Amino acid sequence: MNKVENGLERVNLRYLLSIARWSMKITRETNSKLFFSVIIIEVIQSLIPAGMVVVSRKLINTLVETLSESSSEFSLILPWIIITLVLTIIQAVLGFARTYLNQRVTDDINLRITTDIMRHSATLDVAFFEDPRFQDTLDRAQQNTAGHFSLFFFRFLSTLSSFIQIVSLIIILIAIEPLSILILVPILPPYIFFQWKLAGMRYQKERNRATKRRWSRYFVSRVTKEDLVPEVKILDLAPMLISKFREIIEEFRDQDRTLLLTSFIISSIFTIVATAAFYVIYGRVVFLTMLGGFSVGDVAVFGGATVRMRSMLESIVVTFSRAYEDTLYISNLRDFFDIQPTHLPTVGIYPNEALKEIVVENVTFRYPGTKRDVLHNVSFEIFPGETLALVGPNGAGKTTLVKLITRLYSPDSGRIKFDGIDICELNVEYLYKQVAFVFQQFGRYEATAADNIAYADWKRLLGNYDLIKAHANQAGVDELIQSFPQGYDTLLGRMFGDYTLSGGQWQRIAIARAFARDASLLILDEPTSNLDARAEYELYCNFRELSKGRTTILISHRFSTVKMADRILVLDEGRIVEQGTHVDLLAQSGMYASLYKLHATQMGMAEEMD
Length: 610
Description:
alpha/beta; 22 helices
């Protein structure tokens, strides 16, 4: 559970410090040389202002003494000018070095964090991405978290630098006028408390926006995504979608405006009070100087130091509060990393041979947050090399069942066994290598035609054109690919290329990708839904050869496809209601026969209409 799931009231200092330590540890581990180099430069730079103040005081006093004695000994002043020059050059060069190193730190952190997010996402269960609550967690983790890592590190350095400068300036001011310390006591704590609360309010505001931010991006995507634009235009949905988008963003804008106004008012009050207090003390120093209590150098140094002190105080308070805010955002990333997959991919039994028999025993499953079982007490067996078809109305649980068999979901009760081994005990990497799956929402990869097939087993096929073409020929898509502008090198999709495919052509590529995978279990979920009659016939003719030696599960509403199966299971409302061959099920005159007759009637009507 997120430490801030129910608001900032659950955040405590110990938790924030743990986040800060974790953040610094990640930054140091990313590039330790850069980490320590930046810290050293920051410390040196933070000491230079105090050194400049001391040198300036000595320069002014020496100059005043020389003038009062009517002396023209420039050699007395020259060393202090040279020291000032050297300090100024060092400060400038260190500033350039810090800019260079800071950018390198930012780039390394961005690469590290973004890569870590992608790697962790790749380990998580499919259910994670289908749960709206987890979607908010993922969205928060992606809210420029890498940027907040860098910012936290730099704000830590800035706070350290400001602290060193303030301490050194306080020592100088107290040495001149001890009453200077009294300014900090009544002014600083309230301002720190205000900035701390303001940072918490900004974070909580952004945290609460996670769902609405996803909605805003959704509305934008409906108006800008190529596959959605035609329908949006026909239905004239753009004005409504834009209105909904503006409603959310205007709400955000008004909330931001309130916080900005509050920050402006309180910060202005602090600046006015602090400046007035410092100048009261400054006036006292000037008055005492007129009475002979201080030197002219003391007055000049005190004036410059008080101005810098006020600026440093405001800077350290604001920077510290912003660093606190960064830790809250960084906590979102650690919450995301705390979410662990149900099954670790490197754990479990790794058999030395391909799977053969599949047994499903009393499997029941319901989606998180719902009250209805999608599958209830489902049991059946799939024999080695068998082609099994799943048939039933929409919502019967067919796709859910095959996702359970491939361990994309885990059953609430019951077991699924491969060759007598519970899939919960199998190594996930092994299991996935055994599976080739054409999903209903199959992949349309923005890549070349060759790569779209090679992704079936990219470690083996990527760049191996002979194997890719062999698989394309076997799946009957070589002729299609050869007709593309650059053949196998044609970049598919509109996002980066100029050539896209029809739904049926994309599906044929997806089917070829599945058959190119050296897997013992082949799952085809509506494999002909986008195919025309000719393409479906070609698939039908090649199917026996393509699926030879594999155990195959077919899901289809097209009975011309279902006929290819050795055995058919009929599902209704999450239960198996019939099973047998095509001929057996027609003879039973049950649900399958009814669906088949309806399909035949529809096809007959279609032929008459043609």
